[in-house]
Amino acid sequence: MNESIAVIGAGMMGSAIIKSLVINGYKGQITAVDFQTQKLDDLKELGIKTCFDNCVATKEADIIFIVVKPGDVGKVLKEINSVVKGKLVISVAATVSLSFLRKNISEAKLVRIMPNLGVMAQASYTAFCCDSNVTVAEKQKIQTLLNMMGLSDEVEEKHMDALTAVSGSGPGYMSIIVEALTYAGLKVGLPRNIALKSAAQTMLGTAKLVLDLKEEPAKIKDMTTTPGGTTIEAIYQIEQSQIRPAMIRAIEEATKKSSQIRERLNIT
Ligand SMILES: NC(=O)c1ccc[n+]([C@@H]2O[C@H](COP(=O)([O-])OP(=O)(O)OC[C@H]3O[C@@H](n4cnc5c(N)ncnc54)[C@H](OP(=O)(O)O)[C@@H]3O)[C@@H](O)[C@H]2O)c1
User: Fold this and answer.
1) CA–CA separation, 258 vs 167, rounded Å?
2) Helix or strand or coil: residue 30?
3) Which residue has its alpha carbon closest to ligand 1 atom 9?
4) Pairing of strands 109-114, 124-130
C-alpha cells in the first residue's frame, strides 16, 4: 500500500497510529495535523510531513484518520467536507456514530474504529465498522493498516459501545491487575523490578497462550493447578473476591456510559 494518509490530531492515539505505520515500513506519505508545534516536531523526526491545516492535509490524502476528542469531530468534519469526495475517512473517536459522520460528510467512504492504547506497542485490538459504500477491497486496505497496529476485526456497529468498554478502555483495567499482582509480589518480599516484570510478562504470556496457541482460559487455569498445590490456594482466595461479577458490572456500566456520552455530545 502506498496511498497518502493524513492523521488529524497528533495526540496520544494519533501519534501512536503514525509510529505504528512508520515502524511497519508504510510506503505512502503520512501527514500529521495538530494545533501543537511540539507534537508535530516530535513526528518530523520520524520523517513525517506536518501541517496545521486540516483542509490542506485532507486534500492531499487518500485516507484520512480523524483522531481528535469526540466533541471536536463535528468541527473537523465541517472543515474537510468539501475535499473528501470518494476518500476513506476513518474516525477513531470513541462513541461517535457512523450516522453522525454521514450527516456531516456528504460523499466520503466512512469508517469507525475503536483501537486501544496497545497501538503504542503495535499490540492494539482494533474493532472497525464501515458504512455500506465501503467496498471489500477498501475493507482489506483498512485491515492491512489496522494490523500494523495490532490485531483487528470488522464488527457490526451495534457492538462498538461494548468493544469500547472491553478493549478500548481495557488497558486501564489490565493495568489494575498487573499493579495488584506487583503489589502482591512486594507483599511476599520480591524486589520491585522483579515483581513488576514477572506480573506484566505473566499477563502477556497468558494472552499469547489464548491468541497464539488457542488455549481456553479455563484450560490454562486447569493446566496450572495441581491438587493441594499453590495455584488452587490462590484461586480459592481470588474467587472469594467476586472478581468476575465486578468485571461484568464494570463492563456493563462502561458500555452504557459510551451511549450516554454519545447522547450528551449529540453525536448520534
Ligand atoms: N487514548 C485512548 O486510549 C483511546 C482509545 C480509543 C480511542 N481513542 C480516541 O482517540 C481520539 C484521540 O484521543 P487521544 O487520547 O489521542 O487524545 P489527545 O491526546 O487529546 O489527542 C487529540 C489531539 O488532537 C488535537 N486537536 C484537537 N482539535 C483539533 C483540530 N480541530 N484539528 C487538529 N487537531 C486537533 C488536540 O490538540 P489540543 O490538545 O490542543 O486540543 C490533541 O493534540 C479520541 O476521540 C478518543 O476517543 C482514544
Assistant:
1) 13
2) strand
3) 93
4) antiparallel
Which residue of 17, 37, 41, 67 sits with most ligand 1 atoms within 8 Å of its CB, as the best mutation to test the pocket?
67
Structural domains in the chain? 5-160 (3.40.50.720), 170-254 (1.10.3730.10)
pLDDT tens per residue, range 18-46: 999 999 999 999 999 999 899 999 899 99
Q: Which segments of the chain does DSSP mark as H helices, in order?
A: 12-23, 37-44, 54-60, 73-80, 98-104, 136-147, 160-163, 170-187, 192-211, 217-223, 230-240, 243-265
Work out the widest C-alpha separation in the chain, in whole angstroms: 69
Rounded to the nearest angstrom, the distance between the alpha carbon of 130 and the centre of ligand 1 is 21
**8 A C-beta contact, residue 110 and residue 93:** no
- pTM of this prediction exceeds 0.85: yes
Region of 89 on the Ramachandran plot (φ > 0 left; ψ -120 to 50 alpha; else beta): beta
